[in-house]
Design a protein that fits this description.
The protein is mainly α. The chain has helices at about 1-10, 10-45, 50-55, 70-85, 90-105, 105-115, 130-140, 145-160, 180-185, 205-215, 220-235, 240-250, 255-260, 265-279, and strands at about 195, 200.
């Protein structure tokens, strides 16, 4: 009995015991994560086809590693997974998402990973999740579809409950990673004017035009396209301001960017602006 008391009172023995329990717990979690990942891989493999893969690759001139699953397929896989593992908490699902992101082989696996937390982001997690989003963009994004999916679906839901964070993504425009720079524009396209409960959120247009100023001369074509996209949605509410901005930046803007920015304007206005670009 004395020996047992001495062992339990020994700091070194307690430390070793605690460390071993922690290692065992982590090992158990990793094994479960691997099971979840294999489940998702199998689901994707069962639903994918070479025809779907070839269809997807047409939209990625720089290449993409895809297995061949559509957006509808991915939505179905996410729903089935969440139904089967309904007992998983928001924190556990976030952990699974990050495990998948670290080990993903195909583009569709990354999209599934984002989708797993979509139902949680609005009412769970704290503001620091925004830092994880930035990390994901800089470390796991390899094409425009990953950026746009994260911004338009996951981060959108996150911001709907945290409008105070929307403007805090502008520093993404300074990122060394082009996909994060693209995200600095895409993440705002749904918040130029957005109904939130009984109130309406308006994104400061000064922030919009500052972002465009920062990225107008970006070397990456997908960042350039995001500038046009942001100006296009801004023109729906502030057309005169967008027209003035385009007129003041004709020399800096590429023709494709201008065409994208004026897409929602009337035919006469589009023709007038494009004719000035040609002169």
């Amino acid at each position: 009995m004395v020996l047992v008391v001495l062992k339990s009172a020994c700091p070194i023995s307690f430390s070793i015991s605690f460390h071993w329990e922690a290692v065992t717990l982590i090992s158990s979690i990793m094994k479960m994560h691997e099971i979840y990942l294999k489940r998702i891989k199998n689901d994707l493999n069962n639903i994918s086809t070479t025809v779907k893969a070839e269809a997807s690759r047409r939209y990625f001139p720089n290449g993409i590693n895809c297995i061949g699953a559509t957006a509808a397929d991915i939505k179905l896989i996410i729903g089935d997974f969440q139904s089967e593992y309904a007992e998983l908490t928001a924190i556990e699902m976030l952990s699974i998402t990050e495990y998948i992101l670290r080990n993903a082989e195909y583009n569709e696996e990354i999209l599934v990973a984002f989708g797993l937390i979509n139902k949680f982001v609005k009412n769970h997690y704290d503001d620091d999740l925004l830092l994880r989003f930035e990390f994901w963009l800089e470390n796991y994004a390899t094409n425009w579809s990953i950026v746009d999916d994260l911004c338009i679906k996951t981060i959108f839901q996150f911001f709907m409950a945290r409008p105070h964070l929307i403007a805090k993504t502008q520093h993404w425009a300074y990122s060394e990673v082009s996909w994060c720079r693209r995200a600095s524009n895409v993440v705002w396209v749904k918040f130029i004017k957005r109904k939130m409960g009984k109130s309406t959120y308006y994104l400061d247009t000064k922030l919009v035009f500052k972002n465009c100023d920062l990225l107008l001369n970006d070397d990456d074509e997908f960042v350039q396209k995001s500038v046009g996209w942001l100006l296009k949605v801004t023109s729906l509410h502030y057309e005169a301001s967008v027209i003035k901005y385009i007129q003041n930046n004709f020399e800096k803007m590429t023709r494709p960017t201008i065409r994208y920015a004026i897409e929602k304007m009337d035919a006469g206005t589009r023709k007038k602006l494009l004719s000035k670009k040609n002169n």
